[in-house]
Design brief:
This protein has 27 helices and 20 strands.
C-alpha cells in the first residue's frame, strides 16, 4: 500500500482539452500541486497563458501560474506525451475534440470527461476507441476573459468506471484496429480510479469514486435542468432564483419530469434527495450564473441541447411527458438564434482539406450548407467549380439515444456498393466522384430536390403512387440479380464478406437488442439473426428505406449504402416493407396508398428477379422476408434505432401487438404478413 501511495504522489503530466472555466480551474489546481499541466485552448487564450500566465482568483486571493510550470497551445498534438487528459470542452464539441485527439494519445494515457450532460463519456470513447472515465463535476467558476479563472465555490468530483464499450469489441474483432497489448494499457481498473482520486485530493480537489456514477451524472443533469435555462432566460444568479416562490415551483416541476425520465431509463433517483440537492446548490453558489446564462450573454451557443434538450429527446423516445423542460428548451434555443449573427455556414476544415487535395477547391473554403436527415453521417452540400456536390463523412457513433458505435470503414463499403450499382443500373445511384477510406468520406454529385424528391416525404404527404413502389422493387431486384451473376459473384463476395460488421450495425441493434426487451421473443429473434447472418446469396444494400430513396425523373435513386454486405437479399426487401407498415400508423389518412404500395413493391421485386435471373426459388426468399418483416418492424419501436414519428405510447404498443404473434409463428408469404397487420383485431389507437 505504501508503494502505491508513493506512486500516487509522483507528479504526472496532465492535458486539459478545452481551457474554459472548468478546464482552467481544475488544471490550475493540479498545477498548484506540482503536476505538469498542458492546456489546449483557443488561440487567444493559449497566447495569454503563454505570455502572462494563467490567473486563478479564489475568494480574495489571486495566484498566477506561469510557464514552464504550465504550458499552453491551440494544438492537440501537444498531448502526445501526457499521462492523462481531462476533456473539458462543451458537450456540443465532444466528438470534434475526441477526433482531434484520436491517434495522438499514448495507449496508456487515461481520459476523463469533465462535462455537462450524461452521455459525453460514451460519445467520446466511441470516437477515441478507448475507455473514457465519466465525472460528475460540482464547481462554480467563470472565465470572464482569456487567462483569468474566477472561482466562486465548490470544486469536487464523483468519478466511476467508464460506460460499456458496446460497439468496440465487435469492431476490434472484425478489423483488428488495436493490438491486445494496447487495449490492456487502456484498462480502467478500480486501482487506477483510486490513484486518480488520490492525485486529485492532494491537489485540494475532493473526489468520490462510485460505481453509481451514472446516478451522479443524472443528479447533476437534474440540477442543471432546474437552474440553467431559467438563469439564462432571466440572466440572474442561483440565489435570486431560489428566493422566488413561483420559480421554486417551476424548478420542482422540472425536477419531477427529469425524475420520471430517469425512472423510465432504468435509474431510480430519490425525489426528496433531488430537491434537497437543488436547494443546496443555491445555498452553496448564490452568486453563480449558469453556464448557459454566461454563453447567451456572450452570444455563444450553449449546451442546452445536452441538458433540457437531452431530456426532451429522451422523453420523446420513451414516451414520457416533459412539457416544462420542452418549453424552457425552446425558449433558450430561440434566444440563441436571435442573438447569433446569421453567418454563412463554414465547411469544416478537414472536409475543405480533402477537397483541396482532390484539386476541387482553392485556399478559400467553398460555399457550403450542412444537410440533415441521417443518424450515421455528417453531410454538407458544397459549391465547386464543377457544380454542386455532396460531401459525406461516416460518424463513429450514430446520432441515436442508445450507445451505437460502428467503424467508419463502412464508407469504403458504401463507395464500392455505389460503383457496382452504377454498373448494374446507372440511374439507381448518384454519381460517386471520389472516396477516402482513411477519412471515411465520400464526394457525390448533388441531386436537386426540385427534380429528386424524398420518398419518405411523399408517403407522408399522400403524394406517392404505387407505381413508385413497384419501381423500387424492380430496381432493387435488378441490382441483387446482377450481383448474383456467377461472373461477378465470387469477387463481390470476397469484397463484401464482412458479416461481423453487418452484425454490429444491423443484426445486433435491430434483432438482438429487441430480444433484450422481449424475453418471450428472444429465441425467435436470435434465430432470425443467425439465419440472416448465414444466408449468402447477393450484394445487400442494408438500409433500403424511404428516407434513403429519392424519386427522380428516371425512377428511384438509392442513397446511404453504408451497411452494404454480401448476404441475404431478403433483408433488403423486408427492411423496406416494414416502413410501409409503419407509415399506416404514422399517417392513417393515407393508409390505402400505403397498402397498395406494399403490394406493388412486392410485385415489382418478384417480377424483377424473374426478369433478371433468380439465384433461388422466389418461395424460399419470400419466406425469409416474411419471417424478418415483423421482427424488423418491432425493432423500430424497441431496438436501438426507434422511428422518430411514432410519438404516442399507444401507437408503439400497437406495433408490439401486431408483431408478436407473427414473430413466434412466422408466415411464409408477405401478403399474409400484410393481411395480419391490416385485419388484426383490436382498436387502432393511431386512427
Amino acid at each position: 500500500m505504501e508503494k502505491g501511495q508513493e506512486r500516487r504522489r509522483e507528479p504526472i503530466t496532465i492535458g486539459i482539452m478545452g481551457t474554459g472555466a472548468v478546464g482552467g480551474y481544475f488544471g490550475a489546481m493540479l498545477a498548484r500541486a506540482g503536476h505538469r499541466v498542458v492546456f489546449v485552448a483557443r488561440p487567444e487564450t493559449a497566447q495569454v497563458i503563454v505570455s502572462t500566465g494563467l490567473r486563478l482568483e479564489r475568494s480574495d486571493t489571486l495566484e498566477v501560474l506561469m510557464p514552464p510550470r504550465i504550458s499552453a497551445s491551440s494544438s492537440p498534438q501537444d498531448l502526445r506525451q501526457v499521462d492523462a487528459v481531462l476533456l473539458c470542452v462543451k458537450a456540443t464539441a465532444t466528438e470534434e475534440a475526441a477526433a482531434l485527439m484520436r491517434g495522438v494519445l499514448r495507449p496508456e494515457t487515461w481520459v476523463m470527461s469533465l462535462q455537462n450532460g450524461v452521455d459525453n463519456a460514451a460519445r467520446a470513447q466511441a470516437v477515441l476507441e478507448r475507455p473514457v472515465i465519466p465525472a460528475a463535476v460540482y464547481v462554480a467558476c467563470a472565465m470572464p476573459e482569456p487567462g483569468l479563472v474566477r472561482h466562486f465555490g465548490r470544486g469536487d468530483l464523483v468519478i466511476g468506471p467508464p460506460p460499456p464499450m458496446r460497439g468496440q469489441s465487435v469492431a476490434a474483432e472484425a478489423h483488428r484496429q488495436h493490438d491486445a497489448a494496447a487495449r490492456r494499457g487502456q484498462d480502467v481498473t478500480a486501482e487506477l480510479l483510486d490513484q486518480i482520486a488520490a492525485c486529485f485530493s492532494q491537489a485540494a480537489i475532493p473526489v468520490v469514486v462510485s460505481p453509481q456514477v451514472a446516478e451522479a451524472l443524472w443528479s447533476k443533469l437534474l440540477v442543471n435542468c432546474a437552474y440553467n435555462a431559467i438563469s439564462a432566460l432571466a440572466q440572474v444568479d442561483y440565489g435570486t432564483l431560489a428566493a422566488q416562490a413561483g420559480i421554486r415551483s417551476t424548478m420542482d416541476a422540472i425536477v419531477q419530469e427529469v425524475l420520471d425520465l430517469s425512472h423510465a431509463s432504468g435509474l431510480v433517483l430519490d425525489r426528496n434527495a433531488a430537491l434537497g440537492q437543488c436547494a443546496a446548490i443555491a445555498a452553496a453558489m448564490p452568486r453563480q450564473l449558469s453556464s448557459t446564462a454566461q454563453d447567451l450573454a456572450r452570444g455563444r451557443t450553449s449546451e442546452i441541447d445536452h441538458l433540457n434538450g437531452f431530456v426532451v429527446r429522451e422523453a420523446l423516445r420513451l414516451g414520457v411527458a416533459t412539457p416544462v423542460n420542452q418549453t424552457l428548451y425552446a425558449l433558450v434555443k430561440l434566444l440563441e438564434f436571435r442573438g447569433k449573427p446569421q453567418e454563412t455556414p463554414q465547411l469544416p476544415r478537414d472536409f475543405h482539406d480533402w477537397l483541396r487535395e482532390l484539386g476541387l477547391a482553392t485556399e478559400t473554403s467553398p460555399a457550403a450548407s450542412a444537410l440533415t436527415g441521417g443518424v450515421s453521417s455528417e453531410i454538407w452540400s458544397v459549391e465547386l467549380s464543377s457544380g454542386k456536390h455532396v460531401v459525406k463523412r461516416a460518424l463513429p457513433r450514430l446520432k441515436v439515444s442508445q450507445s451505437w458505435e460502428v467503424p467508419i470503414e463502412r464508407s469504403r463499403h458504401e463507395a464500392a456498393w455505389m460503383h457496382f450499382a452504377a454498373q448494374a443500373d446507372p440511374a439507381s445511384v448518384p454519381q460517386c466522384v471520389a472516396s477516402d477510406d482513411r477519412r471515411g468520406m465520400l464526394l457525390m454529385r448533388y441531386l436537386p430536390p426540385s427534380r429528386f424528391r424524398l420518398w419518405k416525404s411523399m408517403l407522408r404527404d399522400g403524394e406517392a403512387i404505387p407505381a413508385q413502389a413497384h419501381a423500387v422493387g424492380t430496381r432493387l431486384a435488378r441490382i441483387h440479380a446482377a450481383s448474383a451473376n456467377p461472373a461477378v459473384a465470387v469477387e463481390l463476395r470476397a469484397r463484401f464478406d464482412h458479416t461481423p460488421l453487418f452484425h454490429a450495425i444491423r443484426l445486433e441493434p435491430y434483432l438482438e437488442a429487441t430480444a433484450q426487451r422481449h424475453p418471450a421473443l428472444s429465441d425467435a429473434l436470435h434465430a432470425l439473426s443467425r439465419t440472416t447472418a448465414h444466408t449468402r446469396h447477393a450484394l445487400v444494400h442494408g438500409d433500403i428505406s424511404p428516407k434513403n430513396i429519392l424519386i427522380g425523373p428516371d425512377g428511384p435513386v438509392f442513397l446511404d449504402a453504408e451497411c452494404a454486405w454480401w448476404g441475404d437479399p431478403a433483408f433488403d426487401l423486408a427492411f423496406c416493407l416494414k416502413h410501409l407498415l409503419l407509415k399506416r400508423l404514422w399517417v392513417p389518412a393515407h393508409q390505402a396508398l400505403h397498402r397498395a404500395s406494399f403490394g406493388a413493391l412486392v410485385d415489382g421485386y418478384r417480377e424483377g428477379i424473374a426478369a433478371n435471373g433468380s439465384w433461388e426459388p422466389w418461395e424460399a426468399l419470400e419466406a425469409r422476408a416474411a419471417a424478418l418483416l415483423p421482427a424488423l418492424t418491432l425493432a423500430r419501436v424497441d431496438g436501438k434505432s426507434p422511428v422518430e414519428y411514432l410519438t404516442r405510447a399507444a401507437c408503439r404498443q400497437r406495433v408490439r401487438d401486431l408483431t408478436r404473434e407473427a414473430i413466434l409463428a412466422p408466415h411464409r408469404k408477405l401478403e399474409d404478413v400484410h393481411r395480419h397487420w391490416i385485419f388484426h383485431p383490436g382498436v387502432d389507437p393511431c386512427t
